[in-house]
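agent> call fold_tool(seq_1)
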Amino acid sequence: MDFTDQIGHTIKLESSPKKIVSLVPSQTELLAYLGLGKEVAGITKFCIHPDEWFHSKTRVGGTKNVNFSKIDEINPDLIICNKEENTERDVRQLMKKYPVWTSDIHNLEDALSMINSIGEITRTVEMAGNLIHQIRNNFELIRENKPKPVKVVYLIWKTPFMAAGKDTFIDFMLSQCNFINVCNEPLGRYPEISSSQITELQPELILLSSEPFPFTEKHLEDFKAQFPKSAPVLVDGEYFSWYGSRLLSAPQYLKRVIENCFKV
């Protein structure tokens, strides 16, 4: 059968894949949710969920520095990538030898389409369909009780400061909380941003993500001193940026974030 991915590339698979390599942490977690423990043979060093896989599956490098020799040892019949998380150079090189299916996620519909496609490719359509249905229902519940709009900056890195801008999945998730991302289009998708720019943007909240830079409690006092008019809040980056089965519990987490932010 032919399967076209989210960047328009079509792969041909004669049967359900038996040796899968996943180069995207959130999609690795999805494969685990779909019960593909036997089929998944390789993951990246950043694929930390599920923990059992992290300690037992072959690691094939990082998302942006793939170990091609490790992949060749596996000789997979399917590699799952993502346009943003993996480099175009690596994806193109892998395409020369293996079937590569690449996602491109900007919003919830993109994510649900990816889940459906992975279900079709791996013959787990029913489980994927049930997951999609539950995710839709959970997001509808959070949309019913949106709070007043709040201006935010969402930081993903510390030195230099880097933020999540528009046209990103993080930006979509912020919108589900009725958070207004003040890092708008001219700044780019993941802009470097100075302290003075943050002050000029006048965010009510500065959201400090747990990934890729691990902001923790120790950073809160520094941000309070540096940006006295903006309240810093720690958030779990996996719930804002992982677009696989993590979406099932994301709305409940977002609800807690909203409640905590209004206590700040």
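agent> call fold_tool(seq_2)
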Amino acid sequence: MLEPNNAEINVEELMARVRAEVQRREADGTLPDIPPVTLPPPRNSLETRVVEEIRQARQKHIVSARLPEFTRGLFRDQSSVNIRLIHVVEMLAEHLAALRVEQSNTLKAEKEKLENEIAVLKGETSLQRQTLTRLLDELKRQDAAPDPAAVEASASEAHLHSLDAFYLAFENRYRGSREEIKKRLKVYLPYVAEAGAGKTERPILDLGCGRGEWLELLKENGYTGRGVDLNIPMLSACSELGLEVIKSDAMAYLRSLPDRSLGMVTGFHIIEHLPFRVLLELMSELYRVLQDGGLVVLETPNPGNVQVGACNFYNDPTHRRPLPSTLTAFLVEYAGFKNVHTLFLQPGKAPFPVGPASSPMVRCFNEHFFAPQDYAVLGSKPAAIAPDRNEGQARSGA
């Protein structure tokens, strides 16, 4: 133990050396300092404790001034050691937070993968159940009285649904998760309210409803809607969610509806599957079945984005041809709809700078390669104009 009256220690000389060292470090700026380090917000009790301990250590890293003055020179390096230890702990805490985020992302990806596989298995099971039921019915008919026409119809039905399971798996892999799609579709909810659609007397019909994300979103927001599709596994998935769906060809179902029976018709990524003549007929049927003020919404991939039009569009083997937004808008106008406008959706992101933003060439490049990936054309059916009664009387008098 050091004694203040120890003859072997020259206290005055020791203190003079300490003062000189402090003054030198103050002059050249080498005194220990703590650079700001930003840690991610704590997510659990362990991280909260680590952050709190670091905070307290940062406040106390300098050796206390309460030590006897003549001994402080012996500990002149302790502050530097303290701050270095604090930095090490901070780096470990950051690494722990990064591992947590990585683990969370991995678990989320695995969860989505399992959900997709379960959806595919459910769809395939539903499809097999339908096939077995159809085969049993066919066997019963053959036992009673063989009917070649019935056998041919059954074979045609089986062929029609041969790609159902494949397409469900394809959608689950590339379409996106249910929550992601529902988040994208929220952009249309204000248009539903504005058109007064989704009521019992003004229901919404979704053509090619698929997995039912739009129908589910409508139901969550208190709107009345139903969907039509031919894909058996997808219809089964919709039914499990309590959604109203009809197994039918979209055009055949539209033809069966009475005039002015719907408040809104939507078709998300369906028109690019149709031959052009069918597309023209679809527009006429949409106009017929919508009530006055009814709204049509047609969303499709945007070939104005070069990557979409030249490559990504053809990932789906059932796509026919890309439809430029100007063509789709004209088709809707040609059918008689008014207030036709186009929404451009899912903007592309430039992965790297290609030059100064003021350059005309750069602007042209970005407009074509990083344009929105989808678009939707919206149009409303105008109110019918009542004939002028006076004009009718004048004609009858003449």
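agent> summarizing second result for user.
Confidence is low (pLDDT under 50) at residues 1-6, 394-398. The beta strands are 204-207, 225-229, 245-247, 262-268, 290-301, 338-345, 374-380.
agent> awaiting next instruction.
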